[in-house]
Design brief:
Number of domains: 2
Strand content: 25-35%
CATH architecture of the largest domain: Alpha-Beta Complex
Radius of gyration: 20 Å
Number of strands: 15
Length: about 350
Amino acid sequence: MSKMKAVQVTKAGGDLELVERNIPDPGRNQVRIKVEACGICHSDALVKEGHWPGIQYPRVPGHEIAGRIDAVGADVTNWKPGQRVGVGWHGGHCFTCDPCRRGHFINCKSEQITGITHDGGYAEYMVTPAEAVAAIPEQLPAAEAAPLLCAGITVFNALRNSGACAGDLVAVQGIGGLGHLGIQYARQMGFRTFAIGRGKDKEALARKLGAAHYIDTAAGDPSAELQKFGGARVILATAPDSKAMSALFNGLSSNGKLVVVGATFDPITVTPIQLITGRKALLGWASGVATDSEDTLQFSALSGIRPMIERYPLENAAEAFQQMISGRARFRVVLTMGG
């Protein structure tokens, strides 16, 4: 077999088109993955709408990929055909720039991004640099593992690097694609987990996911509510709403951090006085590299954390993308190969 099905975008603002392509061969230090599932992420809109500078078309999107090694290129010694693996946002690094030499591969000046700088997982096969590959535990089905390679790693890695300790009050803003996982990770890490959402209707789900307390932003000032409990050591901002993030900053305790993972182009408004008083911090967090993905997957398998997903066959990628971009999905949309 030399042909495969793939879904591509041929130009900025174009449609997602199902096409037939040649199955790609892995080059030096690359592996080929037979894709079993690929999550649809909001960041895939960067490809569809052409918002990423320098993107080349046609391009196959998708950076939440779960499957098996199908073939390896020259000089690949740490992977072999048949292994269960995944690939996330980080699609490779140069090893030679200053951030790479210091081990900060996520900040590589020549970072490759899966589905943006090279073709991603909306296809039956894809090729990726070997350093971008993460092993998937046997306990995790492909469709459930796929979203953990972007949404999962983003919130897991942010929380474990936030400085919060078991028992600290950690609040998760947003109960969506990122937030529903963030609440689960925060609970399983031993944090005193609060969920922040808009509307009383979200409380039951937030508590089911592990939140000890729910704050409804429609009912009052969320910062004041957090301060009733002494303030949050960490607030993980997952919903891409800069105004809502800004309204949470005064809910931090002294030495607290507002950690932003929900991507938006609008500015967050925080004054120097807010930062200085109580020595608080505002910071962003990028997802992570392959070893971070492996840690995320292992922790999820051990603790029973799973994404809530909606499945679509690859052939229905355009419909699945619309389900995601409309906000109707509960909560991650996953393409599955072979029906």
